[in-house]
Design a protein that fits this description.
With 527 residues, the protein is of the alpha+beta class. Among the domains are: 47 residues; 90 residues, Elongation Factor Tu (Ef-tu), domain 3 (Beta Barrel), CATH 2.40.30; 59 residues, OB fold (Dihydrolipoamide Acetyltransferase, E2P) (Beta Barrel). Helix content is 44%, strand content 28%. The protein is built from 7 helices and 23 strands. The strands form 4 sheets. A 6-stranded antiparallel barrel has the order 4-13-16-15-14-17. A hairpin with a 6-residue loop joins strand 18 and strand 19. Helix 2 runs antiparallel to helix 5 and helix 2 packs antiparallel against helix 6. It starts with 12 loop residues before the first helix and ends with a strand.
C-alpha cells in the first residue's frame, strides 16, 4: 500500500489548514481508484485528524442552540477551617503548677477550673495586705476624730475670745471711770471748800455772832434784873443757857470757817492721791488684760490651722486606706489567679504542662478549642481581591465531608496582603456541622456577580486563538455553510460562556464539534 506523506509548510496558513484536513480524503480517493479499477462509487466516511466525519467537499459537524439565560461569575478559593474560639490558657503570674485537672479530649465549660497554682505565697500576701488595710482604716478613723477635736478646740477658742473681749472691754471702761472719779475727788480735796461754802460759813458766823450778841445782852439785863430781884433764878438760868448756846454756835461757826480756810487734812489728801494711784493701776491692768484679745485671736487662728492640718491628715489617711484597699484587691486577684479557669466552652486540644512545673507568666498550660465557632479561612490572590466584597454568598465544601456543601457568606476581608505569598485572607462564616473540626482542608466558591438574560453558548463552541488573542465561533448559515464570527467573551464556567454584544443571537446554532479546520463559507453537514 502506498504511504502518502504531505508537506504543506510552503502553503500559507489558512490554505495549509484546509489541505491538511483534506489530505486523508485525497488518500482514500486514490486508494479507491486503484482498488475499484475505475468504478465510480461514493467514498466511505473516514476519520480525520481532528476527529470529524467528512464527505467529499462537506464537513460533518455537531451544533447547539444559542440560548438566553443567567450566568454567574465565581471565584474558587481554598483554605482551612479555623475555630474562632481557639485559646491557649496559662497563669497570669509566675509560679509552680500544683494540679492540672483535665486531659486531651475532655469537654470543658466556660469558667470551669482546669488547673491550680501553688497558693502559699499568695495567701501570705493577702493576709499581710488585709492587716495593712485594717491598720490604715484605724489611722483614718483616728484622723477623723482629730478633725472633730480640732473643731471643738476652735469652738472653745472662739468662745474664750468672745468672753475675753466682753470682760476686758467692761473692765477697761470701769477702770477709766474709776480713775476719772479718783482724779475728780483728789481735785476736790486739793482745792478744798468751794466759794459758796466759804460764804455760807461766813454767813453762819455772822448769824451766830448776832445770836451771841443778843444772848449776851439778854444775860446782862437778866443778871441786873435778878439782883434787883425782878426775875427769878430760873429765868436767869434760861437766859444763861441761851447765852451759852449762842456762844457755842458762834464758836462752831468760827471753827467751820477756820476748817474751810485750812482745807482738807493731809490724811484726806493722801487718801485721795492713793485713790488716784489705785484707779490708775486698775486701768493699766485692764489695758493689759485687753491685750489678751490678741492672744485669744491667735488661739482661734491656731485652732483653724489645726483643723486644716487635721483635714489634711484625714486626706492622707484616706489615701493610705485606698492604697491598702488596692493592695488587698491585687492580693485577692493574685490569689484568685492561682485558679486557672477556662475562658470558653469546648474541648481540651492540648495539655501543655504537668503538676510541679515552674511556669512564667503567660506560659501555656492547656489549649482549648470550641468546634462550634468554626469558620472557613480562605486565601485570595491579588487579582481576586478587588472582586470580593463583604456579604458575598459562598458555597463551602470540605473534603472530610464530601457529600455535603455548606452555604456561607463573606464576613471579613483582611486588607493587608501577606509579605511572602502576596495573598489576602478572607473569612467565610457558614452553617455548622458536628463533623467539622479545626484545620480541615476546605474549598469555597464565591458568587461575584450574576448576568441575567445573557446570550449563552457551550464552551466547546469557542475557538481560542492564542496567536491573535481573538475568540471565534462558527454558526450554521444559509445554504448549510459555516459562518465564522469573532466574539467577545463575558462570564464563563466549565460548560458555558457568555457572548457579549450582538455577534451571536439567541436562536442561532453554533458548531460545537468539527469546526477546528473550518473556514467561513465551507459547506457543512449537521450530524
Amino acid at each position: 500500500m502506498t504511504d502518502y506523506n504531505y508537506n504543506f509548510s510552503s502553503i500559507p496558513g489558512r490554505g495549509r489548514r484546509l489541505l491538511a484536513g483534506l489530505a486523508p480524503v485525497l488518500a482514500l480517493g486514490s486508494f479507491a481508484l486503484v482498488a475499484g479499477c475505475g468504478k465510480k462509487s461514493e467514498p466511505a466516511p473516514a476519520a480525520n485528524p481532528a476527529g470529524k466525519v467528512t464527505t467529499v467537499g462537506m464537513t460533518v459537524v455537531s451544533t447547539a442552540d444559542v440560548k438566553s439565560g443567567d450566568i454567574t461569575k465565581n471565584i474558587d478559593v481554598t483554605g482551612s477551617l479555623v475555630a474562632l474560639q481557639d485559646v491557649v490558657v496559662g497563669p497570669k503570674l509566675a509560679g509552680k503548677i500544683s494540679a492540672v485537672i483535665l486531659h486531651e479530649g475532655d469537654p470543658v465549660t466556660i469558667g470551669q477550673l482546669i488547673a491550680t497554682m501553688d497558693t502559699v505565697d499568695s495567701q501570705a500576701n493577702l493576709a499581710s495586705a488585709q492587716a495593712n488595710l485594717a491598720a490604715a482604716l484605724t489611722r483614718e478613723q483616728q484622723a477623723r476624730v482629730s478633725v472633730q477635736q480640732a473643731r471643738n478646740t476652735l469652738t472653745n477658742a472662739q468662745t474664750t475670745l468672745s468672753l475675753t473681749d466682753k470682760t476686758t472691754s467692761a473692765a477697761l471702761s470701769t477702770a477709766k471711770s474709776a480713775l476719772e472719779s479718783a482724779r475728780e475727788n483728789k481735785a476736790i480735796v486739793d482745792k478744798g471748800a468751794r466759794d459758796q461754802e466759804r460764804a455760807q460759813a461766813a454767813e453762819q458766823v455772822k448769824s451766830a455772832k448776832a445770836n451771841f450778841d443778843k444772848a449776851k445782852s439778854d444775860l446782862r439785863r437778866y443778871q441786873e434784873l435778878y439782883r434787883q430781884q425782878a426775875v427769878s433764878q430760873s429765868q436767869l438760868d434760861a437766859t444763861q443757857a441761851a447765852f451759852d448756846g449762842a456762844q457755842s454756835a458762834l464758836n462752831s461757826a468760827q471753827l467751820q470757817v477756820s476748817l474751810l480756810a485750812e482745807g482738807a487734812r493731809p490724811e484726806e489728801k493722801r487718801r485721795a492721791e492713793i485713790g488716784v494711784l489705785q484707779a490708775n493701776d486698775t486701768l493699766l491692768k485692764a489695758t493689759a488684760d485687753r491685750e489678751q484679745i490678741k492672744l485669744r485671736a491667735e488661739d482661734v487662728k491656731n485652732a483653724r490651722t489645726g483643723i486644716d492640718f487635721a483635714i489634711a491628715g484625714v486626706a492622707s489617711a484616706k489615701a493610705q486606706t485606698d492604697q491598702a484597699r488596692a493592695a488587698v484587691r491585687i492580693a485577692q486577684d493574685t490569689f484568685a489567679n492561682t485558679s486557672i479557669v477556662s475562658p470558653i466552652s469546648g474541648y481540651v486540644a492540648e495539655r501543655k504542662a504537668e503538676p510541679g512545673s515552674q511556669l512564667g507568666a503567660g506560659s501555656p498550660v492547656m489549649r482549648i478549642v470550641n468546634p462550634s465557632t468554626i469558620y472557613f479561612q480562605a486565601t485570595l490572590s491579588e487579582s481576586q481581591f478587588a472582586d470580593v466584597k463583604l456579604g458575598m454568598a459562598a458555597k463551602v465544601t470540605v473534603d472530610a465531608v464530601p457529600s455535603k456543601s455548606f452555604a456561607g457568606r463573606v464576613t471579613r476581608i483582611l486588607p493587608v496582603a501577606s509579605s511572602t505569598a502576596r495573598s489576602f485572607t478572607v473569612r467565610i462564616d457558614f452553617n455548622q456541622d458536628s463533623r467539622l473540626r479545626p484545620q480541615m482542608f476546605a474549598r469555597g466558591s464565591l458568587l461575584i456577580d450574576t448576568h441575567k438574560s445573557a446570550t449563552l453558548i457551550p464552551k466547546d463552541a469557542v475557538l481560542f486563538d492564542a496567536e491573535t488573542g481573538k475568540n471565534r465561533v462558527f454558526t450554521v448559515g444559509p445554504g448549510g455553510k459555516a459562518q465564522e464570527r469573532v466574539v467577545k467573551i463575558g462570564y464563563s464556567n466549565p460548560q458555558t460562556v457568555e457572548i457579549l454584544g450582538d455577534t451571536v443571537k439567541v436562536g442561532e446554532k453554533v458548531i460545537v464539534a468539527g469546526q477546528t479546520a473550518l473556514q467561513s463559507g465551507d459547506p457543512i453537514k449537521v450530524q
